[in-house]
Amino acid sequence: MIGKKIRNLLVDSEKTLVKPAEEVAVVGLKNRLNHALLILTTDKYALVPVLDDQSKMRGLISMPTIMQAIMNIEDVQFEKLGEIEVREVMDTNYPYVYEDFELEDVLRMLVNYAFITVVDKDNYFKGIITRSEILKGTNRIAHEFEKLYDVKDKTPEKERLYNKGRW
User: Which residues form a coiled coil (predicted)?
Assistant: First the structure.
């Protein structure tokens, strides 16, 4: 469990932690790969959410996924960019949390993903939580914790952890 003081420094506020859906670049299921490519390259994203017509989360699309879809053993078939729909090649296995997420779950997931999608119980896309936002909080902790709090060693506990190789 994350301590209250650490949580307060890690997360400026729940509102700043989740980037709202209207501020996130997304593509639609029926968009062609050329549109997804434009979104990815123009905004310099590695990965973007894919939504259906009702703004429900359906998957993720990335540059490597697009490239795999238009390559064969001999060459890259750029003409396929305008033929293939995003829904045909998107990754449907994506990390997500519900709006009432636990911070511990988000931190565990962000070890392996650049962002986590936030959805409601009906799978409507609400936004994303980025690794960048958590790292900003980590930076705040590293620079501010000892300025704000008196910290003292719990010597027996410190020695026990050190002796177990966790220090």
Answer: none
C-alpha to C-alpha distance for 97 and 105, rounded to whole angstroms: 8
Q: Domain holding 10: CATH number? A: 3.10.580.10
Domain count, the chain: 1
User: What's the alpha-carbon Rg for the chain, to the nearest Å?
Assistant: 21
Two structure tokens written together for 78: 């750029």
* Ramachandran quadrant class, 55 (left: phi over 0; alpha: psi -120 to 50; beta: rest): left
Dist. CA 97–CA 107, nearest whole Å: 11
pTM of the model: 0.81
Q: Print pLDDT tens along the chain (167 aa).
A: 788 888 877 786 556 789 999 999 999 999 999 999 999 998 888 899 999 999 999 999 999 999 999 998 889 899 999 999 999 999 999 999 999 999 999 999 999 999 999 999 999 999 999 998 889 888 888 888 788 888 777 666 666 666 666 54
Sheet of strand 96-98: strand arrangement: 18-20, 125-130, 115-119, 96-98
Q: CB under 8 Å to 3, separation ≥6 — which residues?
A: none
Q: Which domain holds residue 33?
A: 4-163
